[in-house]
Design a protein that fits this description.
The protein has 222 residues and is an alpha/beta fold. The protein has helices spanning 13-24, 31-41, 44-54, 61-72, 90-99, 114-122, 162-185, 198-221, and strands at 2-6, 28-30, 81-84, 105-111, 124-127, 133-135, 154-155, 189-193. Bound molecules: adenosine monophosphate. The site of adenosine monophosphate (AMP) has 17 residues, from helix 2 and helix 3.
Amino acid sequence: MRVILIGPPGSGKGTQAELIQQHYGFPKISTGDLLREAVQEGTEIGNKVAEVMKAGQLVADEIVLELVKARIFSPDCQSGYILDGFPRNLNQAWLLERIDGQRQEIVLEILITLEEISRRLSSRRVCVNCGAVYNIIDNKPKVDGVCDLCGSALIIRDDDRPEVIKERFRIYLETIKPLIEHYSRKKVLFQVDGQRPVEEVFKVIRSIIDQRLAIGQREVSS
Ligand code: AMP
């Protein structure tokens, strides 16, 4: 099983991926997180992509694929995995199918407006040290500006700034259409209303995954 989450930055993909991971036990793979880790650790890849990411632009397909490849063939991904932020264009979808094409696939497209995204991202804060995510409106840390978990400072991610949010949304709309058409043709695409509260969105996602898993099991046993 492979669950692919598609949606603009701030649509709640990461949160839903986390919930799917907890419920079904498939590991969540976020290319944004893998790239940010590489930047923080100052690896060769990290140094190459730092500026591109800061500007909200997409990193080259081969670089992202290299990180994904290393991760999806790990033993913990054997029975399934969740992709958050990959593929982001048609070429990446083809590359993924070339390296791991036999899996049952569910693609969840999270639908949300730019207004709602701007509202969410402008209040998001992340810990510089452990990466914990807060929201100064509905998920505040105990002490302003300080991480509950490790006591380090909370910051606004460079690419969560308003001008960058708009640019990331524009790039998303520009690149996503062919990808959506591709998955729609494959009949693996499901659209989910992302404006609703987290638990409601997850309920919808769970019913989609449960249904597909049941179909997969019936196909295996017949
Ligand atoms: P995210 O956390 O998914 O919003 O990703 C943050 C940034 O990482 C993006 O704005 C891109 O610069 C880069 N990135 C993440 N995933 C990909 C991908 N699949 N292809 C290209 N760039 C990516």
